[in-house]
Amino acid sequence: VENALRETMFENTLRFLKSANNKLFDSRRLSKDCKELMKAYPSLLPTTETLGQGNRKETFLKLEGKVQISYKGAQHWVPVTILVGSQYPLHIPKCQIRTTEDLEIPRNHPRADVSGEVYTKYTHHTPPRTR
Questions:
Q1: Contacts of 31 (CB under 8 A, 6+ apart)
Q2: Which class for 55: exposed (0-12), middle (13-18), buried (19 or more C-beta within 10 A)?
Q3: 11: CB partners within 8 A, 6+ apart
Q4: CA-CA distance, 36 to 109, in Å (whole number)?
Q5: What is the CA radius of gyration of the chain?
Q6: 45-51 and 58-71 as β-strands: parallel, antiparallel, unpaired?
Q7: Nearest partner of 81 among 30, 122, 126, 43, judged by Cα
Q8: What 3 state SS string does 70-124 have?
Q9: How far apart, in whole angstroms, are the C-alpha atoms of residue 48 and residue 13?
């Protein structure tokens, strides 16, 4: 997908996210950080996803695509989903590796559990400063 189209998709997604959640904690930070991430990983495409039930629903910014990693000296493209909520950066994004027939996460992986949830110092700590 071309950069201009991705930018338009992101802006439309962000507008929808603002309307669905009424208020974003820091929309400038969310926009800046997600645009940087999409620039670094051009395969990430923005959409939204609503999770929860009843009055506990929240609509998340969802980035999906593949990111390149190095493992045992070889480069691999790993399918991921990143969910960013309305309270970002106070609440950290969730990152999930989408397992496939060809990609299974080992039981004792230091950075992800078998369901694909990613654990790093970045996904489990967000600095309180928002600007």
A1: 10, 14
A2: exposed
A3: none
A4: 27
A5: 15
A6: antiparallel
A7: 43
A8: EECCEEEEEEEEEEECCCCCCCCCEEEECCCCCCCCCCCCCCECCCCEECCCCCC
A9: 7
pLDDT digits (tens, 9 = 90+) for 11-28: 888 888 778 766 788 888
Alpha carbon distance 19, 64 (integer Å) = 21
Fill in the DSSP letter of residue 42: T
pLDDT tier for residue 66 given thresholds of 50, 70 and 90: very high
Q: Cα 90–84–24 angle (5° rounding)?
A: 60
3-state secondary structure (DSSP) of residue 64: strand
First to last CA, the chain: 30
> Cα separation of 31 and 76, whole Å?
28
> What's the whole-model pTM score?
0.78
